[in-house]
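Mods, move this if it's the wrong board.
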Amino acid sequence: MMCPNEDKLYAYIDGFLDDEEKNTVESHIESCLYCQQQLEVIAKEDELLKETLKAPVLPNEFADTIVSQLKPYKRKRNRSMKWMLGTAASLCLAGGIVMTVNPGFAKLIGGIFSSETVDEGLQMAVDTDIATPVNLSVTDAGITLHVEDVIADTSRIAFSYRVTNEQGKTLDPFIEGVDLSAIKLLDENNKEVQLRSMSWGSHDDYGIYELSLVEIDDFSKGTIQLNINQLAGKNGHWQVEIPIDLTPALEHQKVVALNEFIEIEDVKINLNKVRYATSATEIDYTLEFTDEAKEQLYKQLKEKELQFNEEIVYPFFPHFPRIGYRIENNKGEVLGYENIYAEENRGYPVSENMISGNGWWDGDAKELGPITKVDSFVPEKGEEELYFVVDTIYRPKVSDFSITFKPNELPKTFEYNGYELTIESIDDKTDYSLEKSWMPIKSQKSIEVHMTGFSEQKAPNLDLWAISDEKGKSYSIFNSGRSILDETDEKGRFKQTIQLVTYDLKDIPEEITLHIIAETEVIELEKEWRVPLFQK
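Not the wrong board. Structure tokens:
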């Protein structure tokens, strides 16, 4: 299964998927570190948005966190038309759909890839031959889908589009009900290319889709096929085929084999290669526990599974280590970083100039085998000698902490490993999914635990919880929302809120025990590992 889009992840978090969809998504998430990270980010964004809406002034980090990599865009000038119109200006298709190619359309609407709304990598690509104005449009049910520009790089393909009505008014570009089968990448033989991830964003009335080409080495030419059945609230059929040619991008690409290895803090790190593309630089590396650490962790996991059961522990245990690092030039200037604790005045994840991350492994996660990651960052013009500097290890471990309390005696405060948390309330909640019907067709009951408090900046991330009733029966409970603010107390600890939710408990027990099963500890390296990302 390809990674579910952001809307489906939101629906999964909110409990609005049917059982079949939920099982499919959960099965994928179990084996996809990237989607696990996306779920964490979505939960943090939700909580940050709630906190922000309460405040009269938006915090400085709001745009970076919510908008992420998306930025607006101006039309680039003096670009030549690379895709010709052929013998006809329009083509009549079945079902009354009209598809037109309008060479003057781009001049009228401007472009988004040359503005500061998109990341700097896409901005730099605009003035190269990997950027192409395609200017395709298709109309049905009085709604027109305009596909404007394409950036076809070896690391990713991005295309922009707009949606208008019969009067030419620009509509919301969100494509309702779109699934992964609606957007496909096909090769020259019309065979579908299996993508690892796909993302969507919007700004200034534009929609932008981005397809990751990570670890796809056998694609050079083909088409992106759009098959949209619902647009701007109307049913219809909007089919567009966008030509893709990576030939110019392949000519600009440079791949450097690294094969650099280190073993540190019970983690083996191997830097495999770096790929320099026009719009992004990709670092390919592999992480794995040492044999001794793997054996110890595996034994501890077995004990936890016996204590709580496999369904609680296995699917959501963070089975793999991570690294914190920064990208530097030969002057020691930091060009980007992926490190939760890169800035002392922030208590939440910090990522600068990083575009995306993908991770995958073969086999069962419980085997604790190696995981390969490819992280992308925005390149710097004229920078040829870059360095990869590992400064932090994030290592998951089994926890052994429990707190027992009675819901009618709240609030209750406890301390654990750099945290001081107060359990404020326990609530039962019923969510209804209407799905365009005036009668609720599905309801889902949940029990929510709300906590507030403070934590030290380098306190471990509390990854996996369980909840037990007064009879000692344990259930899964998920961290559905965590907000970490810049606000600190007199001890310099960062303010935060935590929300846990369980769908297994039907009623609030008279006595509850919360268990912390797993956490990820932060290990700051005394001696950093600095590796050149270029051929010596």
